[in-house]
Amino acid sequence: MAKVKGRTTFEEDLCKGCGLCVTVCPVNIISLDTARINKKGYHPAAIEEMNKCIACTNCATICPDVVITVERL
Amino acid sequence: MAIVFEKTKGLTDKPTHYCPGCTHGIIHRLVAEVMEEMDLLDNAIGVAPVGCSVLAYEYFNVDMHEAAHGRAPAVATGIKRVHPENFVFTYQGDGDLASIGTAEIVHAAHRGEKFTTIFVNNAIYGMTGGQMAPTTLIGQKTTTSPYGRDEATTGKPIKMSELLATIDGAAFVERVAVNNPANIRKAKKAIKEAFKVQLEGKGFGIVEVLSTCPTNWGLTPVEAMKWLEKDMMPYYPLGNFRKPEEVE
Ligand SMILES: Cc1ncc(C[n+]2csc(CCOP(=O)(O)OP(=O)(O)O)c2C)c(N)n1
Ligand code: SF4
Ligand code: SF4
Ligand code: SF4
Ligand SMILES: [Mg+2]
To answer: Which CATH architecture has domain A6-72?
Structure first.
C-alpha cells in the first residue's frame, strides 16, 4: 500500500513543551528534545524520523499554541 | 506537496499567556478557524470575559470588546441589537458564565438573543488561583475545597447545557470536549453549526467545551486530558441538547 508521506514543521520558539502532540502521533515520532531549551525556556517538541510522518495532522490539531504546520508530500 | 494544516488568519501572531498544555489555546484556534472558513473575520465582534481568557481580545484577529466578569452576554446583547448585521460571539469561562454571570446567560438565552456563546468549562476558577467553581466535581480538591468538594454544603456541579436546553430561546446547545484529536474535530463541527444558527437568525446558541486547567488541577497537561475524559465526561455527557430541525 502506498502510504501518504508528510512533513511536519515546528515553530520551535513558540513551543511550551506540553507534550500533548507527543501522545497523539500514530507513528510515535514526536518527542520533547531534552538536549535543547527554546527561547521560552522549554524543551521543544521535535521529530527525528520525519520519513515516517503520514500527515495525519493529529499533532497540529491538539497543539494549544499553534506551533505546528503539516504538509502532505 | 500541499499544506494540510497551518495557522489560521483568525488568530493574531501574539503568543498566548496560557500555561503549557492549557486547552484554552485549542478552543481559541477552533473558533478562529471556523470564523475564517465562514468568511466572518471582517464581520465578527467578540466579547472577552474575565478569567484566564481575559486577554482573548489580543489573540482573536477580529474586533473585540471586553466585558465585566459574567456580563459578556449583556454586552453582546447590546452589540448585536445595535449591529444586527454583524456576527457576535462571547467567550466565557465557567466561573464567569456559571457563577457570577448566571443571570446574564440565562436571560440572554431566554430572550433568544441572536449571538453565540463559547463556554469553556474547566471545573475551576483558573485565573484567580484555582478556587472551587459551581462546575467543580464532587470530591475535586481546589484551594477553597481542600478536602474535596462536598455535596452536602455546596450541592452538585451545575450542568449549564442541560439547564439552558430547557429554554425555548436557546436554539442551539451542545457540549463537546477537546481531549483528543477526534473530539477536537467534533468540537469544531459543533462551533460551526452554532455559528450557522446565528447567521440564519434562529436564536441564541451555545457550545460548552470541556477544557483542562493543568496548573490548578495539579496535573501535567497529558494527565489533565485523561482526567477530563475519565472524571469530567461521565458527569458532563457530550452531545447536542438542542438544535433547529433544519441544522443537520
Ligand atoms: C466582579 C468580579 N468579581 C470577581 C473577580 C475575580 N475573578 C477574576 S477571574 C475569576 C474566575 C474566573 O474563572 P473562570 O471564569 O472559570 O475562567 P478560567 O480562568 O477558569 O478560564 C474571578 C472570580 C473579578 N475580576 N470581578
Ligand atoms: S502529522 Fe501525524 S504522523 Fe505526522 S508527526 Fe503529526 S501526528 Fe505524527
Ligand atoms: S503540543 Fe505544541 S506546545 Fe505542546 S509540545 Fe507539542 S508543539 Fe510544543
Ligand atoms: S491557570 Fe488554568 S485555565 Fe488559566 S491558563 Fe493556566 S492552565 Fe489555563
Ligand atoms: Mg474556569
So the answer is: 2-Layer Sandwich (3.30)
